[in-house]
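Lab notebook page, bench 4
Experiment: in silico fold of construct C2
Operator: M.H.
Input chain length: 935 residues
Purpose: comparison with the prior construct
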Amino acid sequence: MEARNPKGEDALEVFAAWLSGREQGEASTFADLLGRHPGLASDLEELHATRARLADAGEPDPSKRSSPASSSPSARIAELAARAGSFGRYEIEGEVARGGMGAILRVWDEDLRRHLAMKVVLGETDLAFRAGTRPATPRVLARFLEEAQVTSQLDHPGIVPVHELGLDSEGRVYFTMKLVEGRDLKRILGLVFEGREGWNETRALGVILKVCEAVAYAHKKGVIHRDLKPANVMVGSFGEVFVMDWGLARVLDRKDTHDIRIAPQSATSPESTSSDSPVLTMDGDVVGTPVYMPPEQARGEVEKLSPRSDVYSIGAMLYHLLARQMPYVPPGAVVPNRAVLVRVLTGPPRPMHELNPAVPAELAAICEMAMARDPGERYADTLALAEDLRAYLEHRVVGAYETGAVAELKKWVGRNRALASALAGLVLSLLVGLVVSAFLYVEAKHEKARADTHAAEASQRTDDVLALSAIQDLDDLVTRADAAWPPTRERIPVYESWLADARVLLDGKPGDPAKGIKAKPGVRDHERKLAEIESRGRARPPGESDGWEFDSTEDRWWHAQLGRLVAKLKAFEDPETGVRGSGANPEHGWGVEKRLEFARTIDERSLTGAAASRLWSEAVASITDRGACPAYDGMRIAPQLGLVPIGRDPASGFWEFADLATGEPARRGEDGKLVLADEMGIVFVLLPGGRFWMGSQADDPDKPGFDRGSASEEQPVHEVTLAPFFLSKYEMTQGQWLRAAGTNPSANRPGEVRWGHQFSLLNPVDDVSWTDCAHVMQRFGLEIPTEAQWEYGARGGTTTVWWSGSDPKSLEGCANLADRYCKENGGPSAWSYDEWLDDGYSNDSPVGSFRANAFGLHDVVGNLWEWCRDPFGKYSIPERAGDGERTGGNAGRHAVRGGSQSDIALNARVALRQGFASLSQDGSLGLRPARAVDP
């Protein structure tokens, strides 16, 4: 919501003053307030509704407090403002982390001479990183205050204590708490798997036990966490364990103020996201990977969440420890979070004994009980789970595994071997012998009965299990395919092994009756069984959702399973679009057969073949020669796998290279310029790197980066040093994306005509999210450029507002912007236009339509906004040596640069930065690929 009206009035201050007057007996109604401030009506109504909602949520009675308080966040802010002044004791030393609602800062408490953590509520400006002064919304403020209150009341050694609530120097709400120095449980699990720093399974179980105890305390206080995962568990250097981030917690006897249902998939949250991409709740909170989420939460059944839901999440962490992988996600695999959600909804993860046969049966039983699909079958709370874990660690009977006197006897003997041996030599030895004999006899009978039952069931269901296992085998093959990138020589054995397994899945495998090995059915066998089931059913009229009707429930179930299996297998083996095929799949990219063919030929085509070897010899010699290429200063470069030299750009003097994965090498015309064609692959320019001034300032015309339009997020101007890198000469085209990704998401497709221009595969790809770009680039060893790399390339060696100069009219012939032509040929009336410019386009133009900068790069001003790799953050975050990446910004938002065809020149300045949600898709968003220089 907008914080101020044109008169400069602040909605929060106005509302707080009205509340204060009401408490002092004034008769002013809310309608009166709206009448006095019509420009703030919508904001005041939101504040009023939030106050009412908080009151309904069961805010404690002010009369029972030591100091008066209101149920509205605005009144609380007013109280904090009245007590302001203590913030000066804190010295901010840097940002530790950032989430969807607040940032964690490391601060020094001058009064008590200690370091603390300070959580500061973020306003919409901080969250969106757009121009403006929009503060936190009442909803965000209310939830931030609720988090502080809930956490402060959880007084347990395993929960970080809250010290103080107040306002900082910028008027933002904050609370301070103990600064936890350590590593999260995700990192600890990695140390366990690597066997480093003395971490082992038993020690990690001790950490999970402490998590159970801390959460059990919260449960006793009527609070459930609802977002337990390894990233929210911190382990200190001296064994301290803290359960962190209670931002989604709920007090059970209050109305829930969070809507933590998963937001439905939409155009801005595509399924084709990587496994570490965010999943959003209906409230807009970022929820981590869903692998730790209980099924009832994944289904959106928020009313069913209880302490048993936290039990499931801790059970999932235990699964991660014991199975050596997260539930539903094989090690090293990249599984989209939406796909993980589907798996959570479909059924349990793979049985633990299949992944790690060495897991003790008692621990496996604890994990299975904690992760039961039905909440009623789980431990009642984390205290019961802790008791079983403690029993295992102390060699006592584990309730989830076995109970009774016999079990107690076995555990007693295990704990007291010396005493048991001594007793065996005494008079009671006979009695002990009889007891042990009876125990062994009973156990033998039970074991035989279990074995007979299991054998009968196995014999009866072997064929069914083999059919159902094909579904899991198919999922596993797809997961393996998603992880098998980029297609290089080293992956040839991986692809060959994968294709052999795919042939078995599709064609089946004969059995060996002599050895008791059953035949493995293929897709044709599944089709025959499906036809056999359909012979016992009745076909329904066309158009009905389910085309078959069966008398048998079993036939109905098997028909649905086999129908889906056969359809998936046929799609899987499709030669053009299947994961196995030689074409490309919109979700998974190149088929494995295509990857194998590329991997077998890429060395010869780019490095070892006669033509490639000759081109690289010429390029390396030229780049090293200071006289021929002074810009490279004698730089030495090795031939780069997957690239072929095109030659030096006669205008810029820089060497250019063709990327073979995304199309055919471009060729030069008689004039020395590249001939642009639909089939052209990415053209990379080798930039030498070096030092440059990044950012802008509006204070001193004689200093670098002077720009009267400079904004705070572009400051300060600072020097950055970059290593050499490749940057695409053009924005990535629709043809290049189509060949790499197997789909074209662009809003304007080839062949369409709009405002006198026909779109083609040479138009830049648009409507792509940062997440999609990162995923596709990763497949081929390419990258999204960092902000530093982008700005270095876009400046082309200049320090002016645009690479063409500091006068916007210098952009004539250089940029596609919102201009007079656009205004007169379909441009929206609400847009601003630079009517001094006529670039001839109302939409994005084909790449290379305008003059290049001194580095030979086209369209760095206008046409499309271009994604950058960095999470959006301030320049106070230090850049990484080499590529200049800043990694401490908002992980849910990434930088875009350069402006678009819908922007005026002022909004396409080279230093201008904006932050977009990583899942954003828009017709103005595109990509300029980069690539590191291989040593």
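Observations: Residues 11-80 form one domain. The longest strand covers residues 90-98.
Next step: discuss at group meeting.
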